[in-house]
Amino acid sequence: MGSINCARPPEQVLIDAIAGGTTFFQYREKGTGALTGSAAVELARQLQSICRAQGVPFIVNDDLELALQLDADGVHIGQEDAPAALIRQQLGPDKIVGVSAHSLAEAKQAIADGADYLGIGPVYPTRSKADAEPVRGTAIIEQIRAAGITLPLVGIGGIDARNAAPVLQAGADGVAVISAIAGALDSRLAAAELAALFAGDNISE
Ligand SMILES: Cc1ncc(COP(=O)(O)OP(=O)(O)O)c(N)n1
Ligand SMILES: Cc1ncsc1CCOP(=O)(O)O
Ligand SMILES: [Mg+2]
Question: Which CATH architecture fits 10-198?
Answer without folding.
Answer: Alpha-Beta Barrel (3.20)
